[in-house]
Description:
CATH class: Alpha Beta
Order of helices and strands: EEEHEEHE
Number of domains: 1
Structural class: alpha+beta
Distance between the termini: 37 Å
Helix content: 10-25%
Number of helices: 2
Number of strands: 6
CATH topology: Alpha-Beta Plaits
CATH architecture: 2-Layer Sandwich
Radius of gyration: 16 Å
Strand order of the largest sheet: 4-5-1-6
Amino acid sequence: MSPDPLHLLRVYTDITATRDGLPYWKILIDRARAMGLSNAAVLQVLDAFGPAAIVHGAKAVDLEPGRHVVVEVTDRESALRAFHDTLEISDDTGLVTLERIGVVGYGGHRHRSSAD
């Protein structure tokens, strides 16, 4: 087993969250790439519940489908902690988690060239 196993950092946020006029999820993906992290993805949340999912009336904005995203970043724990230190946490940032993961399969995602 590797002395520094892979970890997964998740940032739950609102799809409309911005920093300096840019979508926050896009900033996080670009930052992860610039920091040389192994991989990152943005996942749209179709349904969820949690302590912030409070019904505020007929138009509960915080429960609208498609309004939330999760940014997932995978790498060594030390690299993810350095990435975490760059996060700008605010009211539109929800839960941030870090957990150890075990890779149980890998398909390689081989991309076809334009000649294929």
